Structures are given as C-alpha cells and as structure tokens.
Amino acid sequence: MKFGVEVFRTLFDESLSKTIQHIEKLLRDLAVSDLRAILMVGGFSDSPMLQEKVKFSFPNIDVIIPAEASYSILRGALIFGHSPKAISERVLKYTYGVEMLTPFIKGRHPESKRVMMDSGPKCKHVFHKHVERNQVVKVGDAQVTQSYHPVNWDQTAISFPVYASELKDPQYTDVGCKYVGEMLVNLPDHDGDFSREVKLSLTFSGTEIEVIGVDEKTGEETKASINFLG
C-alpha cells in the first residue's frame, strides 16, 4: 500500500495546527512579549513538518532546534538531578493559594457558604491567593507570607488545604480549583485568642512546593512538601 505525500501530511494537520495555536496563545501573554527565540525540544520537535510549520508561523522569532531534540528533556532531567540550581526561576502555570474562612459579608458572599464559628459568621471555601499564574518565582525563595488566625475557642490546630487554579484570581476553592495537598499547624496552649497568628509561605524548590507555617506565639515551624509544580 502506498500513500502520496499530501495524504500523509493530512494525518498531522490537526496536531500541527493545535501546536501553533497553543504557541500563539502563549505569545499573547505580556510576560513573554519580548520573546526572541523558540527552543524546540522533545520527540515531536524532530519532525521536519513541525519545524517547518513553526518557522513559517513565527518568521520574526529565532527557532532553535538542538541536535537530537528528542533527548533534550531526558538530558535536562539528568542535569537538574545533579545540579538542582541549574534552574533559578520558574514561570508558574497555576495560581496557588489556601482555603480559608473569612468574615461573612452579607450581599457579597453567598448564603450557602455561611458557617458559624466561635469568632463569628464566616464564609467557607474562600481561596486566599499566595502566587499568581504566569508569575516569575525564584527557586528556593519563599514567596509572599500570609497570616491566618484560629476561629474557635478550643481549636488545637489550623489546617491549610493548598489549591491550584488556572484562573488568575479565583474566589472559591470549589470553582475552578484543584486540591493539591494539605498541612496542619498545631496550636499548643491555645487560650481562645483569635488574634494569634500563623504565618504561611510557599517556596518553589525543584520539583516540589514547600509549605512553611510558623506559629508566632511559640515560634514553632511546620513544613510540608507538595509534589505539584506548574
């Protein structure tokens, strides 16, 4: 059985067009507005048809195709394993934050999310943002530190469920968010002081997110690692 060249090309039309559409979408972001080169790696990058399509679609951007592009990802993983500091910054694919209870504001928060705590009426499932998608973060450096407080008189710990979202500014964790992990910070000798602070920060190190919580009263530090980087 023989196929003409054009017939064979049509088998790749959809994947080629979707690849180009995805690149065009990425280039519309202001974070890469001054992009000067496209580096093609991975098995598909060895395809002459994809190479031709990328060069034709983006004539004003240099297209770099290393030798044996299909092995570049494997080699990069090996280099990173031996030298984690080889990558100094990441552009986040997701917005990250924690689920929290916030004072309920009638007319602003839905009644379905109203819950009563010792410290007063609260709105549940609120997404409290720490970092935003497309934000550039330095690997190993703690990002914005946020403060959280207990909500019940007899509370002995604060749970911090961590969520990720493709939305830039999600409002609630049950809308457009994905649960990625959780950390528990103990509150020894809690005396019902609702002003007691636990400071929480996210650190992006290598292939994990490190969550660090510090009880300001005792100075005790709690750490947890979440393997969900984007």
Largest beta-sheet details: 5 strands, antiparallel
Supply the CATH superfamily name of the largest domain: Substrate Binding Domain Of DNAk, Chain A, domain 1
* Estimated radius of gyration: 23 Å
Total DSSP E strands = 13
Any idea what the shape is? elongated
Number of domains: 2
Approximately how much beta-strand content do the residues carry? 35-45%
- Architecture per CATH nomenclature, i.e. the level-2 architecture of the largest domain: Sandwich
User: Class of the largest domain, according to the CATH hierarchy?
Assistant: Mainly Beta
User: What strand order characterises the main sheet?
Assistant: 5-6-4-9-10
The span between the termini is: 44 Å
Walk me through the structure.
This protein has helices at residues 5-10, 13-27, 48-57, 72-82; strands at 37-39, 62-64, 89-91, 95-103, 114-117, 120-131, 136-138, 146-148, 157-165, 177-186, 198-205, 208-215, 221-226. It has 230 residues and is of the alpha+beta class. It has two domains: 5-86, no CATH class; 91-226, Substrate Binding Domain Of DNAk, Chain A, domain 1 (Sandwich), CATH 2.60.34. Strands 5-6-4-9-10 form a five-stranded antiparallel β-sheet, with no helix packed on it. The chain is elongated and about 80 Å long. The two termini are 44 Å apart. The mean pLDDT is 89.
